[in-house]
């Protein structure tokens, strides 16, 4: 179950008008050619999609155009779909969430520009290849350039690990808890030594991340339902084992007051999550600054999240839109988005920049790039079907019932498979 993401965004920059107004007051001078003068270019993003400071500077950098960013609230995917259908008020550039790209790639690819026709193929080495693949159709069209990725890690309270007699240094934790079994063993030891602390904050996390560590999800490349196969059952059993061992914290809705309290008072001694999860911790438990550390993900690398900038087919000047995208997503600007938003760069050249190589005070001065960069380089690639998210939802719902309501795990599994099959059939999956 993915945690609610709360981001550090300046209140004055939360609307397109406010953003544009602020951008006019500073930033680099415009670099556009005379042919750009007066061209109107709209860019749609959601809260936290990309650094507001980078967007503000983009408005100034392309000052000879009328570049207007808008932060779109509500269900971003649905609003973009509605606008595409009406062909009215389409932006020149739009964000596409990572979880939505399989849908657009599978059913709406003709509504986007193939960025390879604009020169993206010459920039492909700038970004991690597996992320580009997520935005590439079966016939080779590239529908977006990546804003960020979500390499996963283990976030843990060093002080609580020390109290329990567990390893405390990131390299030692990474070695001792390199497998899920090793991680669970640490959880049992923690529970005995510190009864009010739990190793796992989210009962569905072992399921979700085990699936993401594999090369098969819920639907295969031939559009066949495979969510009842051993790779999914293994992930399910892993989550159930953690609950049965008593190492999962009492249920709390992610992002709720109770969930935040668990990070503050030590009920949650660790949490697995993507690189951007650090901002959740900063926002939820600022007074724990310096007590957290980051280690390698138990079970191996995984990715959770990461979005794209794309160009709608009917949105305007494609060449100019591509120029703007490549500027916004340069290694330097992706590094700034990491600092401002916690979005880990998809451009490896960013990893050697000071914004990423320096010590992170919240993690006691640890250089977290030493954990995230190796993980980003080894992400397993899995086919994501357009209906994959919908088919996976019943499993998360049933795991929540096991965690929160003590539902029988076997009945929950059978109900999850049954419901998922019904969803798959409605989505045209065999």
UniProtKB/TrEMBL annotation:
It holds the Pfam family SBP_bac_8. SUPFAM superfamilies: Periplasmic binding protein-like II. It comes from Actinomadura rudentiformis. Coiled coil: none annotated. This is Extracellular solute-binding protein. It comes from the Bacteria.
